[in-house]
Amino acid sequence: MAKTAVVTGAGSGIGRAVAQALLRDGYRVALAGRRADALEETADGSPDALVGPTDVSDEDSVAALFGTVRERWGRLDLLVNNAGISAGGTVADLSVEDWKRTVDVNLTGMFLCAREAVRLMRDQEPRGGRIVNNGSISAHAPRPASVAYTATKHAVTGLTRSISLDGRAWNVACGQIDIGNAATEMTERMAAGIPQADGRILAEPTFDVRHVADAVLYMAGLPLDANVQFLTITATTMPFIGRG
Ligand SMILES: NC(=O)c1ccc[n+]([C@@H]2O[C@H](COP(=O)([O-])OP(=O)(O)OC[C@H]3O[C@@H](n4cnc5c(N)ncnc54)[C@H](OP(=O)(O)O)[C@@H]3O)[C@@H](O)[C@H]2O)c1
């Protein structure tokens, strides 16, 4: 039987590339995101795609998405917890609204989706499944003026570790992919120049998002008794590795 997956943030960028790679690989894929038209574009008429407009920060909306998956397919093998936003601002100037909005999507949204996924995976026969959380190299080190994004991405690492440990009881594996500079809308500004730690503005290299999709497909394809706990993939020459 075909494996089933939920991909959040599937209407653009990494989520779209991962969802389309999973569809090509024979998965049935529920596409989640707020914009239905963008999800339809990702689905591109595939009979194996389920367009599920969802706000991941809203508990009822997330429950409805996973309820539809349970009704339609009866099981869930994979959650790719990908939806995320980036609000710029330093600790001195970020508004509490932007802080809360970032926490709501990047952290609470991932928790809500993981909770529904784990419940489905726990209750199904055969039991279990896999969750891949999309962290970031901002889960390791901040860019200037990114306090909310960096804090939430560090928190995603804690979420991944906790799900990995708790998930053992139900045969749920959990891993995290930490990406640096895949070419998407979020990273378009890299080409124009972006602030560096030493105050300079520098253009940064990006890499093709399909390599992220290939990496997620590899993580997803492992048997449940093996797990990639953390995988870091970056543009090779971006200024992440290195120090003065
Ligand atoms: N590109 C990179 O190099 C890079 C590096 C590190 C980490 N990441 C992470 O990768 C993930 C995807 O980023 P991307 O580069 O592909 O950027 P993107 O194209 O902006 O994708 C973000 C996606 O999240 C969805 N989203 C935002 N708020 C949502 C909400 N409340 N509910 C449901 N979906 C929501 C958006 O769809 P709607 O607006 O339709 O809801 C959009 O499809 C993010 O978690 C980001 O932090 C990316």
Automatic annotation (TrEMBL):
Its EC number is 1.-.-.-. The keyword Oxidoreductase applies. It comes from the Bacteria. Keywords: Oxidoreductase. It holds the Pfam family adh_short. It is an enzyme of class 1 (oxidoreductase). GO terms for molecular function: oxidoreductase activity. Belongs to the short-chain dehydrogenases/reductases (SDR) family. This is SDR family oxidoreductase. The lineage of its organism: Bacteria, Bacillati, Actinomycetota, Actinomycetes, Pseudonocardiales.
